[in-house]
Amino acid sequence: MSVPRTPDPGPAPQRDRSRRFVAAARRVGRGGATSARAVGRGGAASARVVGRGGRMAGDRFRRFAAADGAGDTGLARLTELHAVNTAGDAAVTVALAGTVFAMPTGEARGQVALFLALTMAPFVLLAPLVGPLLDRFRHGRRWALGTTLAVRCFLAWVLASAVVDGSVWLFPAALGCLVASRSYSVARAAAVPRLLPAGIGFVSANSRLNIAGIVGMVVGGALAGAASRIGPDWSLRVAFVIFVVATVMSIRLPARVDSPLGEVDVDGTPAGHEPLDEPQRGMRRLRALPVPVRYVLWLTTGSRILSGFLTLFLTFLMREHPIPGWNGPLVLGLVVAAAGLGNALGSLVGNRRETPAPEAMATVIAGLAVATSVVTASLYSVWALVLLGLAAGVYTQLAKLCLDALVQRDVADAMRARVFSWSETILQAFWVLGGAVGILVPLRPALGFSVVTVVVLGAGALAVRSRRVGTGARVA
User: Within 13 Å, how many C-alpha atoms sit on residue 338's CB side?
Assistant: First the structure.
């Protein structure tokens, strides 16, 4: 009987090498699987951390918005709406950067005049049309807010195609977005008094809205910036989605926003009252504003003059005559950063529970800004410019908060939206005036900052004079 023979495994060294190769391959396979599982666990953990951080940030923002009774009156929901609205505006701004609406800093100073005129375009409709229209329909302010958001939603979708194709609709659609954005601002400011909790004042409420706007601007800008890496049209699609959400949020605002008290008839007469006589109809003029409103309005024009001047004068000064030893764009970046910090600081100061009277705050910050401008004219340097940028940012933000608070406090609901539209138009006109001074004055630092100091002081003198001129009656 023959015994079957097993195959010869070969020499011993060859068998050892085969075993080692197989063992090494198994170790590599186990290591790869372990690494893949580790990467998966790490990715899942990172996603959980990001999600948890997002939820914590969202919860903290909601607590901030609902503080001091704002959750009970509905101001918290308006604050959340404003954050989403600002996120949408930021997305549109990112998408339109570099278009006809961008400041032409690389052009000659004479050509920048077209840009200044362009910035006034939305206000041609705001004061004569939008303000009175919002006052006539203030029993439907939720729908007014929703309409301004829905219009931007539609126009963002139109712009998404126009930006890529270079369509002739680019300018009209972008201009429509600007008009709708300004109309939203007027309607939102006019609605705040109906939602104000008993525990906080108007300055604090407006500051809270501005802080929410800063948060929304950062988030919206980040989302649009990420989407723009695909194409500028994707930033506008992000804006479209944001405005859809904001439109729904506006309709879900509390019903007290649509309070019918003081509803206006077609001829402008408050329901149940006699028609306004001719002198009262003349209250659309600046002199008819309450004295505190008129006073702070003139002080706030000084902040816009200073802001417009810095924007253009410093841009051309740093391009043509940079400070020795400093890069011009770097200096501009430092001043812009200081102005942004000043804006945030102004909102934080205004957000304090106990604040001085709006007139006093506006007066003090105007005086500080003028003093800083004098220092810059005398001791021209990078750090003087940074200090002036910081002061201008605080002045612009805090003065506007004080002005809005006084309009909300002293102007009756029947006229509040149109007074807001008038004030916005006046302030933009003075920003253009400041920019015009910046492109007309010779590019000599001492002369330029001395001229703008005199102009801002002139606005202060008009503010003081306004206390003694006109009726100062309550606008109603």
Answer: 21
Farthest-apart Cα atoms in the chain, separation: 134
Q: Rounded to an integer, what distance in angstroms lies between the CA atom of residue 116 and that of residue 432?
A: 6
Distance CA 306, CA 243 (A): 33
The span from the CA of 163 to the CA of 124, in Å, is 25
Beta bridge partners of 474: none
Higher pLDDT, 239 or 176: 239
Q: Which of 279, 339, 286, 329 is nearest to 309 (CA)?
A: 339
- DSSP string computed for 394-419: HHHHHHHHHHHHHHHHHS-TTTHHHH
Look up residue 144 and give its two tokens. Answer: 């007014």
Do residues 430 and 123 make contact, with C-beta atoms less than 8 angstroms apart? no
Q: Is the dihedral of CA 458, 459, 464, 470 positive or negative?
A: positive
Q: CA 191, CA 212: separation in Å to the nearest integer? A: 16
What confidence score (pLDDT) does residue 473 get? Answer: 47
C-alpha to C-alpha distance for 457 and 373, rounded to whole angstroms: 11
338 touches 462 (CB < 8 A): no
Assign 3-class secondary structure to 428-467.
HHHHHHHHHHHHHCCCCHHHHHHHHHHHHHHHHHHHHHHC
pTM of the predicted model over 0.85: no
Which two structure tokens, joined as six digits, stand for 164? 């890529």
